[in-house]
Amino acid sequence: MDISPESRKEFVNELRHVSQKILEEEDVRKKAYYYSAAYGIARRLINFQYDPQINFLELVLEVSYNTIRARIETIVQQRDLTIPLVEGFFDRLAENVNELASKIEKDEDVYRTLEKIAVLTHITTGNGYYLYTKGLIKI
Length: 139
Description:
With 139 residues, the chain is mainly α. It has one domain. It has six helices and no strands.
C-alpha cells in the first residue's frame, strides 16, 4: 500500500480498536456498529491517499458489514430465524480484523485476510450457512 507512515499507523490503530471493541461488546448490533468503523477508516484514507489495494479493502469490508448487519437485523426483529450467527462468529471476525491490521502494519499483502472475511461473511447468507452446515465452510 502506498500510504504515508502516519496514515498506516492510524489505519492500524483504528483496526485494532475495532477488533477489541468487537470482542468486548455483548450486543451483536453494537459489535456490527464497531465493525463498520473498519471500512469507515479505509474510506476516509482513500479520500486523501488513494491506493487501489485500500479501495479493494474498503469495498470488501463495506459489503461484509452490510451483509452481516442485514442478517443481524433479520434475527433481532425475528423476521427469519433459520440462519443464525454461528458460534464464535464475532470472535473470528475480530481475529480477522486484527490480522488485517498486522498485515497493513508490515506492508504485507492483505488478500488472504480479506478472503477470510468474505468467507466468514458468506456464512451469514442462506447459501453460505448451508455450505457451513455441510462442512464445506469452516470458521
